[in-house]
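Our preliminary data section would be incomplete without showing what the modeling component actually yields. Below, a chain of 115 amino acids is followed by its predicted structure, encoded as tokens that our downstream tools consume directly.
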Amino acid sequence: MVTHHCRHINAYLAHAHSLGTLHEDCMREWQRLVLYALTNALAHNHLVVGTIAAYLQRQNLDADLLRRYLQSPHPDRYVTREAVDHLDGLTGAVPETRAEPTWVAVGRRIARNTH
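Predicted structure:
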């Protein structure tokens, strides 16, 4: 799972890096596209951190230790609904809602492709 997401995050970062040469003649277009690429990388990274943190919570990791690892007094900043849904998909858990959330489906696909 980490490898899968790191590839995608690195692709966003590489794209952001390449935009400097692709749009050197149009600063406004560069600004728009580089921020899209960087915020996509940030959101993806946030999802990975939250998914791992949710997993550690389910493994009963001490709450103070989790806060120290996350370098944040508020683990819920990372453990979002999307991260929990993603973890459910990765682990094959049954989602809490009747309709399968998108991140559950994504997690199931990643788990299927990495085994």
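The helical segments are 2-22, 27-58, 63-70, 81-91, 102-114. The mean pLDDT is 89. Preliminary results of this kind motivate Aim 1 of the renewal.
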